[in-house]
Amino acid sequence: MGNILEGLHIRADDKLASFFKRNIIVFVLLLLCIGFAIGNSSFLKASNLINLTTQMAINAMLSVGLTYVIILGGIDISVGAVGALSGVITAMVCRNLPSDIPLFGMVAVQIGMGLVVGVVFGSFIGYIIAKLKVVPMIATLAALTIARGMCYIFSGGSSVSGLTDAYSWLGAGRLFKTLAKPTGWLPIISIVVIVFVFMMHTLLSKTVFGRHVYATGSNINVAHLAGVNTTRITFTCHVLCSVMASLGGVLNSSKLQNGQPGAMEGYEMFAIAATVLGGTSLQGGSGSVARALIGCAVIAVINNGMNLMHINSYWQKAVIGFIILMAVVLDMAQKKKKA
Amino acid sequence: MEPTLQAINISKLFPGVQALKNVSLDFYPGEVHALLGENGAGKSTLIKILSGVYTPSEGQIILNGEPIEFHSPHDAIEKGIAVIHQELSIANDLTVAENIFLGLEPTKGKMLDRAHMNKTSQDILDFMQVNIIATVLARDLTAAQQQMVEIAKVINRKAKVVFMDEPTSSLSKHEIKALFAQINNLRSSNVTVIYISHRMAEIFEMCDRATVLRDGQKISTRMVGEITEGDIVASMVGRDIGDYYNRQVHVRGKEMLRVENLCRGREFRNISFSAYAGEILGISGLVGAGRTEVMETIFGARKADSGKVFVEGREVKFKSPRDAINCRIGLVTEDRRRTGLMLMTTIKRNMVLPSLTKHKKKFGFVNRSWEDSVAGEMVKKLRVKTPSTETIIGNLSGGNQQKVILAKWLVADSDILILDEPTRGIDVNAKSEFYTLMNDFVAKGGCIIMVSSEMPEVIGISDRVIVMREGLISGELSAGEASEQSIIELASISSATAQES
Fold first, then answer.
1. What is the maximum alpha-carbon separation in chain B?
2. pLDDT surpassing 70 at residue B101
């Protein structure tokens, strides 16, 4: 008894330290912003900040879905390829739409296609992992290759182009056009992403389904014995992950106004990095969608800042890789301490 | 005679917690020394200090008359200290010989001298008179045989001091005997064995001296011949426990659960019994008799080959634990860490998990006000010692964790509780409290089926006892008939075959 209370007492003392540790990524983000702001005066300009939100938009879609899967203790490295596949398919479908289709119809088809491709591909991955119990890393590595192969098969190896301006509204359009800025202030892509992030965050943090996701990731035996259908939870999370990736792919394709079979190469790494930087543990059981968004911001700021400072893009890749490694090492170290 | 290992005024301070305070102990060659104490008394800290895992904050360790400092566990091993942990550290995919020589592989030139390794290992195993072949894979051995391999490892390393942490917890009576023979072997070759166990009978059978720790301090070291079990328990707890089981007279009500001819592969056959409202039904038997498997099958976590289960007279077919929970059955599993708790999660979230669906709000949202109030209520009712329901459950003691698991099923409104080894690894006080909670549940018309390997517990609290042996029910005893003797007769293999022949 004495021992327990003393034990709890130290934890109270450590509260400040643990608050700092839990929110370290926020401080890192602030420091980065301050650093880049000092290094380059155009970093803090409104136009650059708005640019930033569009730059992190697609990664945000991927990492939000990935958060679910990583909380389960799994992984999905096929998100980039699934996004590209969805981009190619959506572009091919929309190219064949009548050219006078209203904007609303175009957007509905784009989102609809994103959902369809995501659900179909996600069900495939989910079935293999949840039902056939294939290790997620291997299952999604195979899925990555399949998806990338299908991209080239469908597109015949070349970019799907010849798309209308309506096609690019979702990814490149802006609202609130003013005289000073005729292209508009508010990127539509940012609104779309915020809506999806909000829904996914609510689903994970406020619903029984979300609790079951955490429970399955914390201890799958306990969850199963508490009546949670862990197979269904695993399946559903993979579907959600692929759907978000697929929608991200549609946004990307819309932004570029084409469907490239080689698009979003290596995006899975950025998404994993953002999720882990946001404090979602690769060992499962804990994490949050909102925090993954902060992780995305960190990566976007680093990329953007390095761009402004004219750092070679090859270097940028290496830097991001190094950051991922650090985030994972920190995660492991923290877990080890607790064990 | 000079002591092999001495601890002099050892203290260990963790941030905010004094785990050990001025503990002095001597261990002599050829001695089997029991180390006793409740969980949290400082036993494991002491072992870790004496085996090089922790360095002491104060005090000195003396080995063979010379002061010594261990810089790492490896360092301690090289100086002749060995620890056999409760969870064995056997590499399943290596052979027995490879395990025995792990870290000390003999070489011939640059190459592994496999012939020498196999021969020496076999010699040791033969010397131990255990029937194990050095070249088979460790995974093909039983738990008891793996333990023998651990001992062979100790012999091979010529360890002078061996710590054994709850070595018998997963062994049958027969296997325990074999283990004791090996301990006697070690004793006669002048090795010091430090023996940690909660099982009093073993202490009295095997040990020469016993040291009791409480709250990080040494309470006493006595010759085992001069003390009684009561003395030990009293010094472990620091007071007389009185009526430990708090036995109560229950009024048996209607039949809650009936099982007919349940079979599942080689695990169990023809299991038929009934459990009633207002009773605690004890299920006794040796480890491996199939008790846990029967319970998990009733709960829907395993699939039966044949047989029927009735809940309150209606036949049920559970496809998954969800169905059992809907019929108001709860299962407290035998392994808290593996199948009982989400360790890194809060008390509250552990407690409400099975009931979330039932209490959800519109669109599947979690009913937060309900979960806050029900968790707070339960913590108060079961007297869980915690500052709040938001505390991470891994930070609680075993007894309090077990209370939270019980609360989980009370929140789920269970009428039938299946408790599998409910008091394993929790200290004496917590056990007593847990029995009170069980009695309260039954007094309100609940039905408890308790699987337990601790015979005093089965006898002390059950209204009726069913004994299992090798996948079959070998008998049923009323509270009056149940005694260590009568249960052992039904549970053990040797007496059973004697009866049959």
1. 76
2. yes
- What residue numbers bound the domain in which B419 lies? 250-328+415-434+446-501
Q: Does residue A266 sit within a domain?
A: yes
Q: Is the pLDDT of residue A119 over 90?
A: yes
- Residue at B167 is within a domain: yes
Same domain, B38 and B81: yes
- Domain count of the fold of chain B: 3
**Mutation to test the A interface, candidates B237, B297, B356, most A Cβ within 10 Å:** B356
Residues 6+ apart with CB under 8 A from B70: B51, B52, B55, B61, B76, B79, B81
Query: Is A218 in contact with B344 (Cβ distance < 8 A)?
Result: yes
How do residues B35-45 score in pLDDT, each as one tens digit? 988 766 788 88
Residues B47 and B131 in one domain: yes
State yes or no: pLDDT of B109 exceeds 50: yes
The verdict on residue A232 lying in a domain is yes
Task: Indicate the residue of B322, B356, B386 with minimum beta-carbon distance to A229.
Answer: B322
The reply to whether residue B339 touches residue A206, judged by beta carbons under 8 angstroms, is no
pLDDT in tens, A267-293: 998 899 899 888 888 888 989 999 999
- Give the C-alpha distances (Å, rounded to integers) separating A187 from A49, A51, A168: 11, 9, 12
Assess if residue A101 is contained within a domain: yes
Residues B35 and B163 in one domain: yes
**ipTM reported for the complex, 2 dp:** 0.84
pLDDT of residue B496: 41
B254: which residues sit within 8 A by CB, 6+ positions away? B276, B277, B312
> Does residue B441 lie in a domain region?
no
Q: Is residue B259 located within the same domain as residue B208? A: no
| Overall average pLDDT of the A10-19 stretch | 61
Confidence tier at A4 by pLDDT (50, 70, 90)? very low
Question: For residue A67, what are the domain limits?
Answer: 46-272+290-308
